[in-house]
Amino acid sequence: MTELYQPFVTDDHRLIVMDEKSAELTKYAANAFLATKITFMNEVANFCELVGADVDQVRVGIGSDSRIGYSFIYPGAGYGGSCFPKDVRALVSMAEEQGVEAHIFSAVERRNQEQKTVLLNKIAERFGDDLSGKKVAIWGLAFKPETDDVREASALVMIRGLLARNATIAAYDPEAMETTKVDLGELSSRLEYTKDMYDAVVDADALLVMTEWKQFRDLDVSHLIANMDNPVIIDGRNLWHDHDFTSTAVKYVGIGRHSSDISNDMSKAIDQLEKLVG
Asked: Is the model's pLDDT at 12 over the cut of 90?
Protein backbone atom coordinates (compact mmCIF):
# COMPACT_ATOMS: atom_id res chain seq x y z
CA MET A 1 0.00 0.00 0.00
CA THR A 2 2.87 2.37 0.77
CA GLU A 3 4.40 1.74 -2.64
CA LEU A 4 1.01 2.18 -4.34
CA TYR A 5 0.21 5.53 -2.71
CA GLN A 6 3.72 7.00 -2.68
CA PRO A 7 3.40 8.85 -6.03
CA PHE A 8 0.34 10.69 -4.67
CA VAL A 9 1.83 11.62 -1.29
CA THR A 10 3.61 14.96 -0.92
CA ASP A 11 5.99 15.92 1.85
CA ASP A 12 3.31 17.71 3.83
CA HIS A 13 0.79 14.86 3.51
CA ARG A 14 2.34 11.90 5.21
CA LEU A 15 1.26 8.35 4.65
CA ILE A 16 0.47 6.94 8.08
CA VAL A 17 0.24 3.19 8.61
CA MET A 18 -1.95 1.85 11.42
CA ASP A 19 -4.17 -1.11 12.26
CA GLU A 20 -7.62 -1.41 10.66
CA LYS A 21 -9.73 -0.44 13.69
CA SER A 22 -7.58 2.63 14.39
CA ALA A 23 -7.77 3.69 10.74
CA GLU A 24 -11.55 3.35 10.72
CA LEU A 25 -11.93 5.29 13.96
CA THR A 26 -9.54 7.99 12.70
CA LYS A 27 -11.86 8.69 9.79
CA TYR A 28 -14.94 8.85 12.00
CA ALA A 29 -13.19 10.96 14.65
CA ALA A 30 -11.87 13.51 12.12
CA ASN A 31 -15.31 14.18 10.65
CA ALA A 32 -16.94 14.22 14.07
CA PHE A 33 -14.39 16.76 15.29
CA LEU A 34 -15.09 19.10 12.36
CA ALA A 35 -18.84 18.67 12.88
CA THR A 36 -18.31 19.57 16.54
CA LYS A 37 -16.45 22.78 15.60
CA ILE A 38 -19.33 23.83 13.36
CA THR A 39 -21.90 23.01 16.01
CA PHE A 40 -19.92 24.78 18.72
CA MET A 41 -19.83 27.95 16.62
CA ASN A 42 -23.55 27.75 15.98
CA GLU A 43 -24.09 27.54 19.72
CA VAL A 44 -21.88 30.59 20.21
CA ALA A 45 -23.86 32.43 17.53
CA ASN A 46 -27.11 31.81 19.38
CA PHE A 47 -25.52 33.15 22.58
CA CYS A 48 -24.39 36.24 20.67
CA GLU A 49 -27.98 37.00 19.69
CA LEU A 50 -29.08 36.69 23.32
CA VAL A 51 -26.42 38.98 24.79
CA GLY A 52 -26.05 41.46 21.92
CA ALA A 53 -22.64 40.36 20.66
CA ASP A 54 -21.55 39.96 17.02
CA VAL A 55 -20.55 36.40 16.16
CA ASP A 56 -18.36 37.54 13.27
CA GLN A 57 -16.23 39.57 15.63
CA VAL A 58 -16.11 36.67 18.08
CA ARG A 59 -15.09 34.34 15.25
CA VAL A 60 -12.21 36.60 14.23
CA GLY A 61 -11.12 36.84 17.85
CA ILE A 62 -11.03 33.16 18.68
CA GLY A 63 -9.71 32.19 15.26
CA SER A 64 -6.63 34.33 15.80
CA ASP A 65 -5.55 31.77 18.38
CA SER A 66 -3.41 29.29 16.42
CA ARG A 67 -4.69 26.46 18.59
CA ILE A 68 -8.19 27.11 17.21
CA GLY A 69 -7.69 28.57 13.72
CA TYR A 70 -10.32 29.80 11.29
CA SER A 71 -11.36 26.54 9.65
CA PHE A 72 -14.90 25.32 10.31
CA ILE A 73 -15.85 28.13 12.73
CA TYR A 74 -18.33 29.89 10.45
CA PRO A 75 -21.85 29.86 11.92
CA GLY A 76 -24.79 28.90 9.75
CA ALA A 77 -27.95 26.87 9.40
CA GLY A 78 -26.40 23.52 10.31
CA TYR A 79 -24.19 21.04 8.46
CA GLY A 80 -25.38 18.36 6.04
CA GLY A 81 -23.95 16.12 3.36
CA SER A 82 -23.04 12.46 3.23
CA CYS A 83 -20.13 12.40 5.71
CA PHE A 84 -20.56 14.53 8.83
CA PRO A 85 -24.10 13.41 9.81
CA LYS A 86 -23.41 9.77 9.00
CA ASP A 87 -20.10 9.60 10.85
CA VAL A 88 -21.36 11.38 13.97
CA ARG A 89 -24.28 8.96 14.13
CA ALA A 90 -21.94 6.04 13.53
CA LEU A 91 -19.93 6.97 16.63
CA VAL A 92 -23.14 7.27 18.66
CA SER A 93 -24.21 3.82 17.42
CA MET A 94 -20.79 2.29 18.07
CA ALA A 95 -20.85 3.62 21.62
CA GLU A 96 -24.29 2.12 22.21
CA GLU A 97 -23.00 -1.24 20.98
CA GLN A 98 -20.30 -1.02 23.62
CA GLY A 99 -22.84 -0.21 26.32
CA VAL A 100 -21.80 3.40 26.85
CA GLU A 101 -23.23 6.79 25.91
CA ALA A 102 -21.36 9.11 23.55
CA HIS A 103 -22.34 12.33 25.29
CA ILE A 104 -20.53 14.78 23.03
CA PHE A 105 -21.40 13.08 19.75
CA SER A 106 -25.05 12.74 20.77
CA ALA A 107 -25.16 16.43 21.70
CA VAL A 108 -23.61 17.44 18.37
CA GLU A 109 -26.19 15.44 16.42
CA ARG A 110 -29.10 16.80 18.47
CA ARG A 111 -27.85 20.39 18.36
CA ASN A 112 -27.28 20.29 14.61
CA GLN A 113 -30.84 19.14 13.99
CA GLU A 114 -32.07 22.05 16.11
CA GLN A 115 -29.90 24.49 14.16
CA LYS A 116 -31.62 23.50 10.92
CA THR A 117 -34.85 25.00 12.26
CA VAL A 118 -33.34 28.26 13.58
CA LEU A 119 -34.22 30.19 10.43
CA LEU A 120 -37.75 28.82 10.50
CA ASN A 121 -38.08 30.31 13.98
CA LYS A 122 -36.80 33.65 12.69
CA ILE A 123 -39.44 33.65 9.97
CA ALA A 124 -42.15 32.76 12.49
CA GLU A 125 -41.03 35.60 14.77
CA ARG A 126 -41.59 38.07 11.94
CA PHE A 127 -44.62 36.64 10.12
CA GLY A 128 -46.25 34.26 12.61
CA ASP A 129 -46.62 30.47 12.59
CA ASP A 130 -49.24 30.43 9.84
CA LEU A 131 -47.54 31.57 6.63
CA SER A 132 -50.64 31.39 4.44
CA GLY A 133 -50.42 34.13 1.82
CA LYS A 134 -46.67 34.57 2.37
CA LYS A 135 -44.10 33.86 -0.32
CA VAL A 136 -40.56 32.87 0.66
CA ALA A 137 -37.71 32.91 -1.84
CA ILE A 138 -34.94 30.40 -1.15
CA TRP A 139 -31.44 30.84 -2.55
CA GLY A 140 -29.44 27.63 -2.27
CA LEU A 141 -30.61 24.04 -1.95
CA ALA A 142 -27.38 21.99 -1.88
CA PHE A 143 -25.78 21.27 1.49
CA LYS A 144 -22.71 23.24 0.35
CA PRO A 145 -21.65 25.19 -2.76
CA GLU A 146 -20.11 23.63 -5.87
CA THR A 147 -22.25 20.48 -5.68
CA ASP A 148 -25.76 19.23 -6.49
CA ASP A 149 -25.79 17.07 -3.34
CA VAL A 150 -28.81 17.71 -1.12
CA ARG A 151 -28.32 14.83 1.29
CA GLU A 152 -29.12 16.07 4.83
CA ALA A 153 -29.29 19.62 3.42
CA SER A 154 -30.65 22.26 5.79
CA ALA A 155 -32.61 23.79 2.91
CA LEU A 156 -34.78 20.69 2.64
CA VAL A 157 -35.62 20.86 6.34
CA MET A 158 -36.60 24.49 5.85
CA ILE A 159 -38.72 23.69 2.80
CA ARG A 160 -40.68 21.00 4.62
CA GLY A 161 -41.18 23.31 7.60
CA LEU A 162 -42.35 26.20 5.43
CA LEU A 163 -44.77 24.02 3.48
CA ALA A 164 -46.17 22.67 6.74
CA ARG A 165 -46.91 26.30 7.65
CA ASN A 166 -48.66 26.90 4.31
CA ALA A 167 -46.01 29.15 2.77
CA THR A 168 -45.52 29.59 -0.97
CA ILE A 169 -41.92 28.87 -2.00
CA ALA A 170 -39.84 29.93 -4.99
CA ALA A 171 -36.41 28.28 -5.04
CA TYR A 172 -33.17 28.71 -6.96
CA ASP A 173 -29.88 26.81 -6.91
CA PRO A 174 -27.23 26.76 -9.66
CA GLU A 175 -26.83 22.97 -9.50
CA ALA A 176 -29.19 21.24 -7.11
CA MET A 177 -32.75 21.84 -8.30
CA GLU A 178 -33.13 18.47 -10.02
CA THR A 179 -31.73 16.53 -7.04
CA THR A 180 -34.06 18.51 -4.79
CA LYS A 181 -37.06 17.45 -6.87
CA VAL A 182 -36.04 13.82 -6.47
CA ASP A 183 -35.49 14.12 -2.73
CA LEU A 184 -38.76 15.96 -2.03
CA GLY A 185 -40.87 13.67 -4.19
CA GLU A 186 -44.52 14.73 -4.29
CA LEU A 187 -43.78 17.81 -2.18
CA SER A 188 -41.66 19.15 -5.01
CA SER A 189 -44.78 20.02 -7.02
CA ARG A 190 -45.63 22.66 -4.42
CA LEU A 191 -42.43 24.61 -5.18
CA GLU A 192 -41.67 27.05 -7.97
CA TYR A 193 -38.16 26.51 -9.36
CA THR A 194 -36.80 29.60 -11.10
CA LYS A 195 -34.14 29.95 -13.79
CA ASP A 196 -32.58 32.99 -12.17
CA MET A 197 -31.92 33.90 -8.54
CA TYR A 198 -33.73 37.22 -8.86
CA ASP A 199 -36.77 35.62 -10.47
CA ALA A 200 -37.33 33.86 -7.15
CA VAL A 201 -37.71 37.10 -5.18
CA VAL A 202 -40.47 38.60 -7.33
CA ASP A 203 -43.41 39.39 -4.99
CA ALA A 204 -41.67 37.51 -2.16
CA ASP A 205 -42.12 38.56 1.46
CA ALA A 206 -38.76 37.19 2.52
CA LEU A 207 -35.50 35.95 1.00
CA LEU A 208 -33.95 32.96 2.74
CA VAL A 209 -30.27 32.17 2.01
CA MET A 210 -29.31 28.54 2.65
CA THR A 211 -26.13 27.88 0.62
CA GLU A 212 -23.09 30.14 0.26
CA TRP A 213 -22.76 30.09 -3.53
CA LYS A 214 -20.29 32.73 -4.74
CA GLN A 215 -22.80 34.28 -7.11
CA PHE A 216 -25.05 35.14 -4.16
CA ARG A 217 -22.39 37.34 -2.56
CA ASP A 218 -22.71 40.12 -5.13
CA LEU A 219 -26.14 41.28 -4.00
CA ASP A 220 -28.19 43.75 -6.04
CA VAL A 221 -30.12 45.44 -3.24
CA SER A 222 -31.98 47.72 -5.62
CA HIS A 223 -33.38 44.65 -7.39
CA LEU A 224 -34.75 43.31 -4.11
CA ILE A 225 -36.34 46.62 -3.22
CA ALA A 226 -37.95 46.87 -6.66
CA ASN A 227 -39.43 43.38 -6.56
CA MET A 228 -40.27 42.79 -2.89
CA ASP A 229 -42.71 44.61 -0.63
CA ASN A 230 -40.88 45.52 2.61
CA PRO A 231 -37.97 43.20 1.71
CA VAL A 232 -36.69 40.91 4.44
CA ILE A 233 -33.44 38.94 4.14
CA ILE A 234 -32.85 36.02 6.48
CA ASP A 235 -29.23 35.12 5.83
CA GLY A 236 -28.50 31.57 6.97
CA ARG A 237 -24.83 31.78 5.95
CA ASN A 238 -23.98 35.37 6.94
CA LEU A 239 -22.99 36.13 3.34
CA TRP A 240 -23.67 39.83 3.79
CA HIS A 241 -22.58 40.26 7.40
CA ASP A 242 -20.46 43.30 6.46
CA HIS A 243 -23.09 44.95 4.23
CA ASP A 244 -24.68 48.11 5.59
CA PHE A 245 -28.44 47.87 5.13
CA THR A 246 -29.27 50.73 7.52
CA SER A 247 -29.85 53.26 4.73
CA THR A 248 -32.11 50.93 2.73
CA ALA A 249 -35.62 49.53 3.09
CA VAL A 250 -34.19 46.03 3.56
CA LYS A 251 -34.62 44.30 6.91
CA TYR A 252 -31.60 42.03 7.41
CA VAL A 253 -31.44 39.10 9.82
CA GLY A 254 -28.27 37.02 10.09
CA ILE A 255 -26.95 34.28 12.35
CA GLY A 256 -25.52 35.50 15.65
CA ARG A 257 -25.89 39.17 14.77
CA HIS A 258 -28.23 42.10 15.35
CA SER A 259 -30.98 42.42 12.78
CA SER A 260 -31.04 45.59 10.69
CA ASP A 261 -34.15 46.62 12.65
CA ILE A 262 -32.04 46.84 15.78
CA SER A 263 -29.18 48.46 13.87
CA ASN A 264 -31.55 51.10 12.48
CA ASP A 265 -32.87 51.83 15.97
CA MET A 266 -29.31 52.11 17.29
CA SER A 267 -28.31 54.43 14.43
CA LYS A 268 -31.30 56.68 15.12
CA ALA A 269 -30.47 56.72 18.83
CA ILE A 270 -26.86 57.66 18.11
CA ASP A 271 -27.98 60.45 15.75
CA GLN A 272 -30.33 61.83 18.38
CA LEU A 273 -27.61 61.67 21.04
CA GLU A 274 -25.15 63.48 18.79
CA LYS A 275 -27.72 66.23 18.17
CA LEU A 276 -28.30 66.61 21.91
CA VAL A 277 -24.59 66.68 22.69
CA GLY A 278 -23.70 68.85 19.67
From this structure: no
